[in-house]
Amino acid sequence: MPCVAERPACPLCHTAGSSLFCTAPQGDKLLDYYRCSECRLTFVAPAQLPTLAEEKAEYDLHCNDPQDAGYRAFLARLAAPLQALLPPAATGLDFGCGPGPTLSLMFREAGFSCADYDPLYANDPQLLTRNYDFISCTEVAEHFHQPGDSFALLQRLLRPGGVLGVMTRWLMADPQFERWHYRRDPSHVCFYKPATFEWIAARWDLVLHLPATDIALLQRP
């Protein structure tokens, strides 16, 4: 067990002295995972985070086809409850759209305007200077190296009444964490519990909706 001075601050809530949760293999390396006692985030030790090149190499292996019915059904788990909270003609942003933008296409087909942003594949900084009625963030939050900064940015981009929709696998079974397939993706570095989203909602005065497992909707009053 590392000494207190070696324990990193939480990258979400910045509470000092997170506890070592476990050490687990990742390829040919061993990674240290820490757990924050305040917001319940589990995260990779900062010194062991992947480089941008390593992340992109992993992302480039993904094959997200906008015409794939199975992929669309997966994304609809977020799109459907999010659309139910939107006014007609709402405008949005798909944050972290990846190399094959699909969710924005689904929103446009449903009558909503939606732009694509991704720091690697669709990097238009101007999109981060506007405000939106909704922001979708599917299978992205687990990649955040500085989730506190990322969620602060996302909530600033919301108009009053706007909704941030997040889809990421929740960490529910601590004893199975080392064997969990979701952890084994080398680009996944942050893992959330429902309590973590409760903390996020309280921190930024958002209304939290949990319509289904792995889905969190955070709405500005």
Automatic annotation (TrEMBL):
Pfam families referenced in this protein's UniProt entry, alphabetically: Methyltransf_23 (PF13489)
InterPro entries per the UniProt record, alphabetical: SAM-dependent_MTases_sf
Gene Ontology molecular functions: methyltransferase activity
GO biological process: methylation
Keyword Methyltransferase: yes
EC number(s) recorded for this UniProt protein: 2.1.1.-
Primary enzyme class: transferase
Keywords for this protein: Methyltransferase, Transferase
Record-given protein name: Class I SAM-dependent methyltransferase
